Amino acid sequence: MKGISAVVAAILVLLITVALITALYIWLASNTEQTTQTGTEQAERFTERAQISFSIDGVNNDTIYIRNSGPVDLTFGGTSSGYVLINNRYVNVSYSAISPGEIGKVKILDYFNRSITNTISALYLGAVATYILGPQPIGPCTPSWSCTDWSSCLGGTQTRTCIDQNSCGTDQGKPPDSQTCADTEAPSTPTNVTANYLSPYSMNISWSASTDNFGVTGYTVYRNGTVLGTAGGAMLSFLDSTPYSTLNYSYSVDAFDATNNHSQMSLPAYNATPEDYSSTILHWKFDEGSGASVYDSSGNGRNLFLSSGTTWASGLKKYSARFSGSAYGYTTQPVVSLNALSVEIWIKTPADGESDFLIWKDDCYRESWRLMTMGNKAWALGSKTGANWDWNVQGTRDVKDNTWHQVVMTFNSTAGMKLYVDGSFEAQGTATGSFVRSSGATLIATTGFGCTNYGLVYSLVGDVDEVRIWNKTLSGSDISMLYNVLRQ
């Protein structure tokens, strides 16, 4: 038994020895291979580094320009980050691969003081490629300023924005970004001006806001071209509490700023206060549109009666009476005003060159006054005795062209007679004295009513609207306002 045990023990020792020798061999072989591979890689890396050649081509603010003068790409170990030693301080950078013969960029990511001269002593780019350089000076960053245009003058100051294109982080050499200025720019012209009647002695004027580079300080309100008052910059309306009735008004508005620059005056708005019929002898509006009579809106009972053959047509605002050459209108109530008179009539007649009676005062034998056409022009006549025309005023513009025209005659015993067409003065007669008294009818569109001395030779062919007679002398501005209100 002892012999067998000795044999077994010897075998076990032998097996253990063989296993140890085998394990040692395997370890030695593996270690030799790894050492060979590491040596190869290191050799390759040293070869790569031997082929790499570059230089710093320049520095501009936060960018380093590297020139690749070697035969291989500068891949910097396949990464895109690294750092640079600037003034012995590590600063992070980023970059891309640079091909042979090209100049690439290394972007400095961290802040460094660019207002002084800096020195680059080393670049650490990638896991493998680490390049130690000699000192590379970076001169101070030179700002390159670019400025916007000056703003409009606001509050006496103009501003602009200036940006350093090189991002040097300094205000060195920065141009001024503000300067004083004088405001010479006027506000924009107010628009949408309206005049709304509120009561016989009040009118509300409103408008849309103007704009200004400094801001609108206020608005000036004009009535008939004369300053009426002002409103603050935030106000867009004005109450006129000073008008009086029977008159028509033109309202305009301008805007002004703190330095008293005024805008252009707005387009006018027209309106009229209701008539004070104490000075109105008659007013025929022709608003009926049908029937054989026209109401006297003055309340004086001088209604107009229309003869057979008169028809109705479209008027200035609503309707008008249409006369055919044999039709006419009349009122039998006396119209007596010998020393002051104003007569308005609107007509729309064809350009036939005929002479037509428009409106007149006659008792068949003693004419007091007359408005008519001679050819295609307006004509006003007046007599002191009924036998001769002491006032004979002829217009210069055509009123017979198949469009609406306003014809007005005014009279004053001390100033004479004036003729107006479409709100504008035409001509005048300066003789003094009073009209002859006539108790006859007031007629329109005909030469006679129950008279045989004229017949129907000068009867009107056309339309008539808005007839008014006053026992006062209207001014030129009154007549212009009447025209503009009805033509809106």
Task: Please provide a written account of the structure.
With 488 residues, the protein is mainly beta. It has four domains: 54-138, Sandwich (Immunoglobulin-like), CATH 2.60.40; 143-182, no CATH class; 191-272, Immunoglobulin-like (Sandwich), CATH 2.60.40.10; 277-487, Sandwich (Jelly Rolls), CATH 2.60.120. Helices cover 13% and strands 41% of the residues. It has two helices and 34 strands. The protein has helices at 2-51, 476-487, and strands at residues 54-60, 63-68, 81-86, 89-95, 103-108, 118-125, 130-138, 145-147, 157-159, 162-164, 178-180, 191-199, 202-208, 218-223, 226-232, 237-240, 248-256, 269-272, 280-284, 293-294, 304-306, 311-314, 319-324, 329-331, 340-348, 356-361, 369-374, 377-382, 391-398, 405-412, 416-421, 424-429, 442-444, 461-470. Strands 19, 22, 23, 25, 30, 31, 32 and 34 form an eight-stranded antiparallel β-sheet that branches. Strand 3 and strand 4 form a beta hairpin. The longest helix is centred in the first third of the chain and has 50 residues, at 2-51. The radius of gyration is 53 Å and the shape is rod-shaped. The N and C termini lie far apart (146 Å).
